[in-house]
Design goal:
Helix content: 55-70%
Number of helices: 9
Number of domains: 1
Strand content: under 5%
Shape: globular
Number of strands: 0
Structural class: mainly alpha
């Protein structure tokens, strides 16, 4: 009789250890496991459910796991989601709040996103797409996705700041000579 295959170690916050049924559920389990003392609010406590740290953390972890990185795109998606509108009574986190939550709660986001990616990887193992999960690679991928979101947002902000530059330069070089200010 062949020996039993070695058991893979699963962290206690692993979605498979908690019985997650979907990516959304895996994110929810991970977000609930975060200690309150590790979360930094980015809005007043009475600002509504959508702006609370756990809600923002869940939105970011789920979005990044789905490879949606731009905070403005996340905000726009929430505004189009009738279920979100109903649950949060029309209160939406704006792109700035999402960026601030990412910055202020990066360690917690890293834990939740890693748990979400572990769920996705577990699904791939179950489907036979991959044979095993490399935990350090999950953490690296979570970190890479957070960096990608930061980069994407910085490009979006740069685009907004440089949109008017050609107009400003036109008047400087009118009639073939630069004007002094």
């Amino acid at each position: 009789m062949p020996p039993d295959p070695p058991r893979q170690h699963r962290p206690l916050h692993s979605p498979t250890a908690t019985g997650a049924r979907s990516l959304a559920h895996a994110v929810e389990v991970a977000v609930r496991a975060v200690d309150d003392t590790r979360l930094v609010p980015v809005a007043p406590l009475d600002a509504g459910l959508a702006l609370q740290p756990r809600s923002l953390l869940a939105l970011l972890a789920y979005s990044y796991a789905q490879q949606v990185y731009c905070s403005a795109d996340i905000e726009a998606g929430l505004r189009r989601d009738p279920n979100f509108c109903q649950v949060c009574h029309g209160t939406f986190p704006d792109a700035r709040s999402l960026r601030r939550c990412r910055r202020e709660n990066r360690a917690a986001l890293m834990l939740c996103l890693t748990a979400a990616l572990r769920f996705v990887a577990d699904q791939k193992v179950a489907q036979g797409v991959v044979s095993r999960i490399n935990e350090p690679n999950l953490a690296e991928e979570a970190n890479r996705r957070i960096i990608m979101a930061m980069f994407t947002d910085s490009m979006e902000l740069d685009k907004d700041q440089t949109a008017d530059s050609p107009v400003d330069l036109c008047y400087l070089f009118a009639n073939g000579r630069a004007r002094a200010h």
